[in-house]
Design goal:
alpha/beta, 4-stranded mixed β-sheet
């Protein structure tokens, strides 16, 4: 383990595409979606703790989730749980941890990763992380991990890379493309020079802060003005001043798509962003009819469905094909799997018609 290697686990999202299991007050990163015995954030922490010192692992979350993180990760030092005063996407979150680390350790190399992704091959994942950490230690580089695509997924962003390596298995990025239409996704797959964007980044802190100065100067200015307050008793008051002035923007849009020192490592470590019920179905143990079931459930004439219900209630289902059925103590969702991208719209309608009670 290297004392200059750090991880920031981003855990502030509300996971609305996993509604109604994922709720605003207890979102998906704190749930055992796949029935593995660990929540998603616990699995993420364990993955990094195998090669990053525990004191160098930070969780950046919404301030309202600090107590949940404490409960689920009791081994994490309390000062390593960082609460954001508001949700402003990933760029302010990354600026926060970057400024904090720049004061603690100017030589820090940082892995930034979501808390709610599935990685089935941790050994391969560790190897890629070490490759990335090695590369950024020798280059002024912003590295992203790209996943070798297995089919033309329209729910992922894509990364196009240059033909030749600049180092072992490291390529210069040509282009980022957000979720494409199916025909375009097929052409990406056929070309062989596109990867899925995993949203996992690696860089030296001393190189990401100048990228904020160049590409997000207004955000840079507000963090720079408060930097002496990080790691002091004045950190939280400083955040209360900083966050209202920050744009709601992702690190992808804000920096990665603009910078000219962005590189990608093509990777294959059994990755899924677990962004939706269909991705859960993909990765769930299934019965002979390809149903993914968690709960006290009996199914008849039912195929390729995912059913997620409480153990306390017997649920009997007949005649469904390709459906999502999710039952909680106050909400029942029945939705065609092909319509899962619309669940976010349903949540917005629920909010409009029923208020926040069911969110």
């Amino acid at each position: 383990m290297n004392k200059h290697h750090y991880v920031a686990i981003m855990a502030g999202g509300i996971g609305s595409r996993f509604w109604p299991m994922s709720r605003t007050n207890y979102p998906k990163q704190f749930l055992d979606i796949l029935n593995t015995g660990k929540t998603l954030i616990q699995a993420t922490y364990d993955r990094f703790a195998s090669f990053i010192p525990a004191e160098n692992i930070f969780v950046v979350t919404s301030s309202e989730y600090i107590n949940i993180v404490k409960k689920q990760l009791p081994q994490l030092p309390l000062q390593n749980i960082l609460g954001e005063p508001s949700r402003k996407n990933t760029a302010p979150c990354i600026a926060y941890i970057s400024y904090k680390l720049s004061q603690l350790d100017p030589e820090a190399s940082l892995i930034v990763a979501p808390s709610d992704h599935l990685i089935l091959d941790p050994i391969a994942f560790n190897k890629v992380c070490f490759e990335a950490l090695g590369f950024v230690s020798e280059h002024n580089a912003l590295v992203t991990l790209g996943i070798q695509p297995t089919y033309p997924h329209t729910g992922y962003g894509y990364i196009q890379f240059e033909q030749y390596t600049v180092s072992d298995n490291v390529y210069k990025v040509k282009l980022f493309t957000e979720k494409p239409e199916l025909d375009i996704a097929k052409s990406f797959l056929a070309s062989g020079d596109f990867l899925w964007n995993a949203g996992i980044f690696v860089w030296q802190v001393k190189n990401i802060i100048p990228a904020f100065a160049k590409h997000l100067p207004e955000m840079f200015d507000v963090f720079e003005a408060e930097k002496t307050h990080f790691n002091t008793t004045q950190e939280n008051p400083a955040l209360q001043r900083i966050y209202p002035l920050c744009t709601n923007i992702s690190i992808d849009f804000g920096i990665m798509e603009k910078a000219d020192n962005v590189y990608v490592i093509p990777s294959s470590f059994g990755w899924s962003d677990l962004g939706s019920w269909n991705s859960a179905w993909d990765n769930f143990a299934k019965d002979k009819e390809e149903n993914a079931i968690k709960g006290n459930v009996m199914v008849f004439d039912t195929q390729r469905s995912i059913v997620h219900t409480p153990e306390s209630k017997l649920v009997v289902i007949q005649g469904l094909e390709d459906y999502i059925v999710v039952d909680t103590n106050d909400v029942l969702l029945i939705c065609k799997r092909e319509k899962e991208q619309e669940i976010k719209d349903y949540v917005a309608e629920v909010k409009r018609n029923k208020g926040d009670k069911y969110l």
